[in-house]
Design brief:
- The complex is a heterodimer.
- Chain A is of the alpha/beta class.
- Helices cover about 45% and strands about 35% of the residues of chain A.
- Chain A contains four helices and five strands.
- Chain A has a five-stranded mixed β-sheet with strand order 1-2-3-4-5, sandwiched between helices.
- Chain B is α+β, with helices and mostly antiparallel strands.
- Chain B has three domains: about 200 residues, no CATH class; about 140 residues, GAF domain (Beta-Lactamase, 2-Layer Sandwich), CATH 3.30.450.40; about 230 residues, 4-Layer Sandwich (Phosphatase 2c, domain 1), CATH 3.60.40.10.
- Chain B contains 18 helices and 15 strands.
- In chain B, strand 9 and strand 10 form a beta hairpin.
- In chain B, helix 1 packs antiparallel against helix 4, helix 3 runs antiparallel to helix 4 and helix 10 runs parallel beside helix 13.
- Chain B starts with 8 loop residues before the first helix and ends with a strand.
- Classes of the chains: A alpha/beta, B alpha+beta.
- Chains A and B meet through helix 2 and helix 3 of A and loops of B.
Chain lengths: ~110, ~675
């Protein structure tokens, strides 16, 4: 089960993920990010504090946008990840490409 | 005893009948000669009676046999057979009469020999006609037979048999006993004549024909009866054969049954179309309910549906509206209506109440019927029934009539039954197709599974310095895990383990690409970091943008006792240090293949080398092992894996591998199905 919530803030948006991202619902995550991009949002905070699991397919979604974010100068910061979930990002090496912060405050500082 | 083969009964009986008739004639002629020459021939009339009875029985046997043999006799054929025999007897009798009329008062006209000859011919033909008719009527009476009717008929046959011998008692006199017998037979005949169940099964046209044939039979019977009576008083006829109770009784039976049939058929004429209609409806229903055979399509069912509905309601025009996947409507199977008119009418109907209330999206469209008046110059009433397949409204059937309130309750009932049945047929057809398709997919997946199994190695390369074993299981039929070994030289071995992102078929395809890349690159004997760089370059070209592959690449040099390795985003390898008696994860940075698809990837690749000692253990695995969850959602995790290895370090590689698998299964609970691919490779140095 994955629940995605889009919270619009002044100058940025928060994408709150709760539950698990796996092969079956990774398309929903992709659609949510796609929607943000089409709205012209270029500062995205991903709230992963309620994310319990992310599969390789879920990681693939973040990965697939890296190039586009770079080209369009879009910043995406993930914050609040559980340790085991963060470990998945780290093992894959995605922490080198995506900014991962422990909490929202630090994440906000990162996007300014 | 002479055995009579059954197929000869017909021939034998007709032969005996002809011989009997000839003997009858001969006896009679002898008698006449005796009379003319005033000689006592001494032939008693009983001889004639016995021959006559033999003749009756033989003819009876012949017809019984010939009619029973012709099993597929239809009603109309049966009646025609009777009518044609009647026509023959009637025609010849008339010809004889014409012959005597032409003779006028000549001497020949009063010649007793000729008169007797013709009498015998008339007698024979009348007998043939009556017995054939009797046995034909038997077939009709015993149609849809019950035990009671069969018994009744058998009693009648016995009665007829007895009546043949009656002649010996009354000696050809019309006394009360004869009349009593006749009345008895007549009453019995009438009681049998109510068995007319075959009549409703005739079509309207067949009824007309059978009326005609029955009239012929009635005329023939009446005429021949009068003819027979005329002989009664004749002085020329020495032994009267036709005043037999049997024959007169048959006259009565044939006449009454024909009369009853005639009247009932006549009165059945106006309602025959209703019966035919019901029969057609039953047949249509059967056609609709038969599941669609291979090679046929839904279209044929819908075709039968509109025809059935049209005929059931006597509609003047009709069509089907079907919606495709994109909710676009199309018209199909138009009947008696042009395209232009149809579109006008369609618009008109759907603006009119109650048709306007229809909603495609409603869930209770099944079993709903819309009918009402329409303001159209030609068509006054319309009926519309939605077609619902699998809870989805796929279309509508429209019927229109030129009269007001043209659809009565029975029509509506039968049409909604037809529609329901057609929808079930279509649904079955679709389900069947889906099942066949799924079956094919399963077969394909099985093939894929076999192919993929063959991509994983059967034997793993090694030498005396280490033991190795591997294991892999996929969550679905096919998976994305990959491991392999390669011997690079006398003392050099390569180990690789990989995990493709995602699951199932797409992962399996990428896994086979990875295998290809490994086999191409390993021949160049690259350093681990170079391998990852080149593999990343190659995969960047062919992986979809949201896919990546994680891998660990090891080169073991058994001479130098060293391990040289790199990691590309793969789960850290577990290493048991025999000297320290504990295991730890090899820490090295490294990014998954296909994540950074440029030369920048170089920045993220690292390589390390270390020495191994005997007793050290290397455990390569994929994330399915550490991410395996139990029913509480807790992952097996790195710590548990480490503990398992620590406690089983003394075992050999197979035992260690089995221990790990066992522990994982024990942790997640036996009943749980793996939801990720698991792979494991254990190496133990000696």
């Amino acid at each position: 089960m994955l629940n995605i919530e889009h919270i619009r803030k002044e100058g940025y948006s928060i994408l709150q993920l709760s539950g698990e991202v796996d092969a079956s619902n990774s398309v929903d995550l992709d659609a949510a990010i796609q929607e943000m991009l089409s709205e012209g949002i270029n500062r995205i905070l991903v709230d992963g504090s309620k994310l319990e699991y992310i599969s390789s397919a879920g990681l693939g979604v973040f990965m697939s946008y890296l190039e586009e974010f770079k080209e369009k100068d879009i910043q995406l910061v993930i914050f609040g990840l559980l340790e085991k979930v963060q470990q998945v990002f780290v093992i894959l090496g995605l922490d080198k490409l995506i900014i991962i912060k422990p909490n929202r405050e630090e994440a906000l500082q990162a996007i300014v | 005893m002479i055995k009579l083969p059954s197929p000869n009964i017909g021939k034998v009986s007709i032969l005996v009948a002809i011989l009997t008739w000839l003997s009858l004639l001969f006896v009679d002629i002898t008698r006449i000669f005796g009379l003319l020459n005033q000689l006592e021939s001494g032939v008693a009339p009983e001889v004639s009676f016995i021959l006559e009875i033999t003749f009756f029985i033989m003819v009876y046997i012949f017809y019984n046999h010939s009619i029973a043999r012709n099993e597929r006799n239809e009603f109309l054929n049966l009646i025609w057979r009777g009518a044609s025999t009647g026509l023959l007897a009637l025609g010849i009798s008339l010809l004889i009469r014409l012959f005597y009329y032409l003779l006028g008062d000549s001497r020949l006209a009063t010649d007793p020999l000729l008169k007797n000859f013709f009498y015998h011919i008339n007698f024979a033909l009348t007998t043939l006609f009556l017995i054939s008719c009797t046995l034909l009527w038997k077939r009709l009476i015993l149609y849809q037979k019950t035990k009671k009717i069969v018994q009744q008929w058998q009693a009648f046959e016995i009665l007829l048999l007895v009546s043949m011998f009656f002649i010996f008692f009354n000696k050809n006199t019309l006394d009360y006993s004869f009349l009593f017998g006749l009345v008895f037979i007549t009453i019995f005949s009438i009681s049998l004549s109510v068995n007319l169940k075959w009549i409703p099964y005739l079509t309207f046209k067949e009824k007309w024909k059978s009326i005609l044939f029955l009239v012929i039979i009635l005329i023939a019977t009446s005429y021949l009866f009068v003819e027979v009576l005329s002989y009664s008083d004749s002085k020329v006829i020495l032994v009267n054969l036709t005043d037999n109770l049997f024959l007169i009784g048959l006259f009565s039976f044939v006449f009454f049954y024909s009369l009853f049939s005639f009247l009932v058929t006549l009165f059945n004429l106006p309602t025959s179309s209703v019966f035919e209609q019901k029969l057609i409806e039953a047949i249509n229903f059967q056609r609709l309910s038969q599941s669609i055979k291979p090679g046929q399509s839904e279209n044929q069912v819908l075709d039968i549906l509109i025809d059935s509905c049209m005929s059931a309601s006597y509609a003047d025009a009709g069509w089907l509206e079907l919606r495709n996947e994109m909710d676009e409507s199309g018209f199909l199977h138009k009947r008696f209506i042009e395209n232009e008119e149809l579109h006008r009418l369609f618009g008109l109907i759907n603006e009119t109440k109650p048709f306007v209330n229809f909603d495609w999206e409603k869930e209770d469209n099944e079993n709903k019927v819309y009918q009402g008046k329409i303001p159209h110059s030609l068509y006054k009433s319309a009926l519309m029934v939605p077609l619902v397949v699998n809870q989805r409204t796929i279309g509508r059937i429209y019927l229109v009539k030129e009269v007001k309130d043209g659809f009565n309750k029975e029509m509506v009932n039968i049409i909604s039954t037809f529609v329901g049945q057609a929808c079930i047929s279509v649904e079955n057809y679709r389900l069947l197709n889906e099942a066949i398709k799924n079956e094919r997919y399963k077969e394909e997946l099985k093939i894929a599974q076999r192919v993929q199994r063959s991509l994983l190695p059967d034997t793993l390369h090694h030498d005396d310095n280490f033991d190795i074993c591997g294991f892999s299981i996929a969550a679905d039929e096919v998976g994305g895990d990959y491991y392999e070994t390669q011997k690079l030289g006398e003392n050099k071995f390569v180990l690789i383990i990989g995990d493709v992102s995602g699951k199932g078929t797409s992962a399996a395809f990428n896994m086979s690409q990875m295998k290809g890349i490994f086999h191409s690159l390993v021949q160049m004997n690259p350093r681990p970091s170079d391998f990852l760089l080149m593999a990343n370059n190659a995969l960047s070209q062919c992986l979809e943008k949201n896919h990546f592959i994680t891998t660990s690449y090891f080169i073991i040099d058994t001479e130098k006792k060293s391990i040289n390795y790199s990691r590309a985003g793969h789960c850290p390898t577990l290493y048991y240090n025999h000297k320290k008696q504990e295991s730890e994860y090899l820490s090295i940075d490294g990014m998954g293949l296909g994540i950074v698809r440029s030369n920048l990837y170089k920045k993220f690749v690292h390589e390390k080398t270390f020495s191994f000692r005997p007793g050290d253990i290397l455990v390569l695995y994929t994330d399915g092992i550490v991410e395996a969850k139990n029913s509480k959602g807790i992952e097996f995790g790195y710590e548990r894996l480490k503990t398992v290895l620590n406690t089983s370090s003394d075992l050999n590689v197979e035992q260690i591998q089995n221990k790990i698998i066992q522990e994982v299964y024990k942790f997640i609970g036996k009943n749980r199905i793996a939801d990720d691919d698991y792979s494991l490779m254990v190496i133990k140095f000696k």
